[in-house]
Request: fold
Amino acid sequence: MVFVVLTAPALGVIADRMPIKKKLLKWYTVAGIAFTALMGAAPYFGSNGYIVLAVMFTIGTIGFTGGNVIYYSFMPYLGTREDQDKVSTWGYMYGFMGGSMLLIFHLIILMGPFNWDTNFKLATIFVTSALWWWGFGALMFKWTPEPEIHSDMEWKGVMDATKVAYGQVIKTAIEIRKFKVLAFFLIAYLLFYDGVNTIASMASAFGESVLRLNPSMNIMLLLTVNVVAIPMTFVFGKLAEKKGTKFALMLALLIYCAVAVAAAGFAPLELEGEEDAERYDFQFEWNEDTGLYEMTTLYDRGYEGWIAEDSEGDAVFRDGFQEHFPETDYSVEDAGASTLGAGLIVCLFILVVVVLLGGGVKWVQEKEMGLMGVFAAFLLVGVGIFGASFLADQATVDEEEVKAITEADALALVAAFESTDDHRFSIIVVGGNVSGSEVGATHPTMVDQGGPVDWWASTMRSMVWAPLGISVSLQWIILGLFVGCAMGSAGAQARSMFSQLTPKTRTSEFFGFFGFLGKSAAMIGTALYAIASTTFDSRVALLSITVVILAGTYLTSKVDIEEGIRVAQEEDARNEAQGMET
Reply:
């Protein structure tokens, strides 16, 4: 991230003065594809897997974000200024369509009837993501021409190019007053892009910590957003054509703010005892055959999956109840053959597979067979993955151990309910001669915990969620529906608006600043969310980010697009005239 922030503006300057946009994009793409695929090898490194994954992810992110800066700079050359809304809208639409298709495929891999071990499934997900990137990226390099450069700069070495590039970046920063409208929009963009991306990136953490959602609901949220965004991005594109880019962008941002405010009011419905037993974190049910109370846990995470072994936050729960639970086991499972050597072998194998399958896909593309070619490319990848699966370990199904407690332990557990409720969990005992339930004071269903805006969640639950019987999972899906309406539309119209305000002869340079601000904003927004959630709570943090989006929306309303376009056209005319003279 820091690498892209520091290099994007300078690389943009070079790309505007030398015909190397496609070359730069190709190198970023190669890095992104290679290290996306290599992330699939991380599970095979055993205990070092997280370190390997972090390294691969970091380098892959450089390829993706750095490439995006150059990729965006092609936009002004793909149509007139009047067509930028259409170009950006269709780009986002196809992006969401592709993302939805790939996500559905990955869900099938994870949950389908494949007798593959988890490591191979994860590797397949990363490898197919890389191949998807390769396949559709190759079409861009094949069909999109290198933009014409009016002012060529001779290559005199890395040091000279670096000196010229950063010199121009400093010069542009100094003379930014020439582009007042563009600079003003960049400030607005910094604010609303910061907010939009922070909320998107923190959604899963909010869902798990505040609402205690099933982790699979985050996948459903992502899929819902992608699917809904396909038609809604098109709708907002048409709206931009009729009402203007700024109007469509502001409407999308206001919808996003309204959704964020509503999300701050999301709350699980109250637990209703035995009729709600499956929603409790720990459920003990009497088994007449064994004469024991068998334990099941929410989302099948097990006791160890919910209660940290030695964290201070769960100390009260451990001290008050753990002695009455089945015996715990926090030992780490053996990683088996997953070692450094095995991981390196898998890395090499993945690279070979990607090169062979990617090369095959490229060969099919060169034949220009239309839909038959698309089918052939997918079939080739499918056969390749299926063949590779024979080299992987096959999954084994072990009989699940049933954990249970005696009636005496159940009685002691229920008696312990009276001793404390200063924890974040819920327990219920049903059947037999013992019954009782406990909901901790900081459990997600206990909405009013003294926070500044807890009243909002309480009001929404009592006035909307409970009367309509809308569970927290359904609330999450509703969130996805509305975020899908706004997120892609906001991104498409922001990119279109920036493209219209940017001099065509300096696209890479200014899109470098665009990328610089986008990556900087990502760090600022996350820090702001962390500070607000630590000082107050997650609901306040969510609303504080909403205020940032509103501030950016207000500044966007003050942007004079016509004046910005006029200045950009004058700059183009001046640069083109200078290029002809040289």
